[in-house]
Amino acid sequence: MPETKKITFPIPETVKAPWLQYKDPEVPATLEYPDQTMCERVAEIVRRYPNHIAYDFMGKNTTYSEMWEKVNACAKSLKAIGVREGDKVMICMPNTPQTLNMFYAVNMVGAVAVMVHPLSAESEIAFYLRDSNAVCAMTLDQFYPKFEKIMGTVDLQALIITSIQDELQPVKAIAYYLMQGRKNRVVGPRQNVIMWKDFLHRGKTIEIYKIKRKAQDPAAILFSGGTTGITKGILLSNLNFNALAVQIVATNPMFHAGDKMLAVMPMFHGFGLGVSIHSMIANGGHCILIPRFNAKSYAEMLGKFKPNFIAGVPSLFEALLRNSDLDGTDLSCLKGVFSGGDSLSPELKKRFDKFLTEHGASVTIREGYGTTECVTASCLTPIHRQKENSIGVPFPDTYYKIVKPGTTEEVPYGEEGEICLSGPTMMLEYVNHPEETASTRRQHADGLTWIHTGDLGVMDEEGFVYFRQRIKRMIITNGYNVYPSQMEAVIDACDYVQMSCVIGVPDPRKMQKVKAFIVLKPGFVPTEATKKAIMDYCKTHIAKYALPYDIEFRDDLPKTLVGKVAYRKLEEEEAERMSHDAKIQEQVDADAAAAAAKKEEEKKRLQEEQQRKAEENRKKIEEGLNDVGEALKGVFGPKDVGSAEEVLAENVEAEKASETPEAPATEADKTE
After folding, report:
1. Tens digit of pLDDT for each residue in 91-142?
2. CB contact set of 622 (below 8 Å; sequence gap of 6+)
3. What integer is the mean pLDDT of 271-299?
4. Which of 33, 136, 474, 660 has minimal Cβ neighbours within 10 Å of its Cβ?
5. H-state helical runs in 59-143
6. Strands 6-8 and 193-195, bridge-based pairing
7. Quick check: 667 pLDDT over 80?
8. Looking at residues 454-481, what average pLDDT do you find?
9. Burial of 657 (0-12, 13-18, 19+ CB in 10 A)
């Protein structure tokens, strides 16, 4: 077998890389990468380890040679239904054997896999299909109704329908059907809809189906998680995935072919697809496929399969800490535990590290950092040296720098700025977004192309990187910058708190004010006394200007499709609540204004009524006086009797005089 051609990336002289002096000594500074497609890389592993287990699904093991037969069968069938080189094929599936096999089959025929969350809404699926220009799609029977509703609005040549029971052993397949499968609606005959067995049958006679592609050619589209703005398709190459697979093993030298990974992170996400699946399959690892996370079943699998590696988002580890089913479970099998996809608070790390020690593990949780724009992780906490709050040091051949936001100007060590990275896992482009691609993939004065991540961070003098916050997720209150992730780390360390999320709420005076959403630990009750205790804790740990003006208790916090805390959802809920409250207040103000106007109108009416009556009384008095005057004139004569007007005037002057304060008495007055 001829030796595989390698791709190398010499260390550039124009960039600073202080971490090279402090990285794990067994991790090389630079590596060699296969000049191959993903399926070519896997084919080599199949030849090397044909009898190793590639994956386990609900108790059914599949070896590498068996897996490769399935991949080839899928590839033949894709060719049979008309999929050509460069076409896009949507895979809208959880972690199942069909998902894995189809992913590599799409690569084998030279097409591009479009990975989509199966729980996406119908409108979202329609958007993904149109945005990627997918020609066919595959999904589970239980999600077929979503596709059925949008089939008339998208141009889809074929929809492949499979089922969980298609990959189960006969007895389990029957049990699954009785318990779950029969709940799924039967897919009736319909043009362009192909059932899994029929799909595989169509490729039986196909002989020419493999397409020769290059390492730099497109391989997959992953959609950004939606926590940073408008959803975009991120186009990734064969080299991106293969480079990641080489880097993952290099930074984890304890890995050996046959080691097991509990693959719970979904394949539609870079973390799951890149780390839990391809990095394992491309190196002879054993994937334990988990289609849906459930803390109880996950705990059972930890005890049953004794995996060597587990990876997840912080909320997964939080769930495990709350799970009593893990009491007494021996975890000495673990060689590596990785957290990514969201910030890992120091408090959660301490608690989970303690949990690992108590369960016999000799490892601690290692936090990584990355973006879908570079598949997933590109930075990882070293094995032998960890710094609190640090996300570690860059992978081999990957370079980090911190720049002044909005520029390419590098800032000094210890100064906050935007995280930029460069390396072999950088995306090709944002699909259909050339302007955004240009603003994200930028060439700097050092000659390298860098990904501007949109994240704020700091690098210390030893090259350790510290994630601070998404640039867009920053609260400005009274002119001060407040970073929610830092606030959450402090609040999470409170004895009462299980999990927290901090958001900025619009405020006319401060621009924004801080609000905290909190999930309490079991045993604590959401009372005013509890709120006061947490607020008192915050006052001793958080600057006055950053203190939350309000704490809202929740039973749980909303999550994104990949398990991150969906802070945007909380922001939307708060905005809706404030809008609703504003409308109510507007109505209250309007009612109050109307009532005040009515009261003023009534007051004016009463005053006018009083004036009218006073005028009537005056006229009556005037008429009466005139009558009396006429009578008196007859007795005393006209010269000795004044008119009514004169009498009234005299009365008025007399009243005024009576109201004037009496002057102080003089000495003469006193003498008299």
Report:
1. 999 999 999 999 999 999 999 999 998 988 888 899 999 999 999 999 999 9
2. 644, 645, 648
3. 94
4. 660
5. 64-80, 97-108, 122-132
6. unpaired
7. no
8. 87
9. exposed
Q: Based on the domain organization, do 144 and 254 belong to the same domain?
A: yes
Ramachandran angles phi, psi of 439, nearest 5°: -80, -20
Q: Could you tell me which residues come within 8 angstroms of residue 433 by beta carbon, excluding any fewer than 6 positions away? A: 232
| Residue 47 neighbours by CB distance under 10 Å | 12
Look up tokens 């009750």; give the residue.
525
Position 466 in a domain:
no
Structure-token pair, residue 334: 């673990």
Domain identity same for 352 and 494: no
**What's the structural domain count of the chain?**
3
Q: Does residue 572 lie within any of the structural domains? A: no
CATH number, domain of 129, equals: 3.40.50.12780
Among 511, 543, 565, give the residue marking a domain's end: 565
Q: Which two tokens mark 46? A: 């199949």
406 and 492 within one domain: no
- Convert the pLDDT of each residue in 559-601 to its tens digit: 887 788 999 899 999 999 988 888 888 888 888 888 999 999 8
Helix 238-250 with 38-48: angle, nearest 10 deg: 50
The whole-number pLDDT of residue 651 equals: 56
Q: 510 or 450, which is more confident?
A: 450
Edge to edge, the sheet with strand 286-289 lists 60-63, 53-57, 286-289, 260-263, 309-312, 336-339, 365-370, 377-380, 393-394
With beta carbons less than 8 A apart as the criterion, state whether 393 and 259 touch: no
- In this prediction the pTM is 0.78
CB 289 within 8 A of CB 265: no
Same structural domain, 423 and 490: no
Phi, psi of 275 (to 5 degrees): -90, -55
Angle CA(474)–CA(227)–CA(555) in degrees, nearest 5? Answer: 90
Q: How far apart are CA 91 and CA 98, in angstroms?
A: 9
Q: Say whether both 53 and 174 belong to one domain.
A: yes
The rounded Cα 293 to chain-centroid distance in angstroms is 18
Asked whether residue 499 falls in the same domain as residue 444, the answer is: no
Three-state SS for 253? coil
One domain for residues 443 and 587: no
Domain boundary among 435, 459, 483: 459
Domain of 287 in residue numbering reads as 6-459
Whether 543 maps to a domain, the answer reads: yes
Distance of CA 296 to the CA centre of its chain: 24
Q: Are residues 205 and 236 in the same domain?
A: yes
